[in-house]
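Section 5.1 Outputs to date
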Amino acid sequence: MLDLRYLQDSLKITQEIGNASGMCSTLFNMGHIHLENDEPQEAVGKWVAAYQIAKKIDLAQALDALDNWAKELGGDGLAYWEQFTE
């Protein structure tokens, strides 16, 4: 089981300093760890949070990565993440 401790610390720091791009990246990575740990619901939760931040600040690189990842999961690109925000 992969450990999330360092990413949790990183998320806390990026939140404290208001680094939205850093929060997005950390949440994206946390999602992958949750998936590796066979925790798909937690993974999706992290990716949805990353999507919401990326969409808010128009972070193209993260939106592109989330679009591709949604397709890997069988979803319809960014619309996949959007369904969880409604």
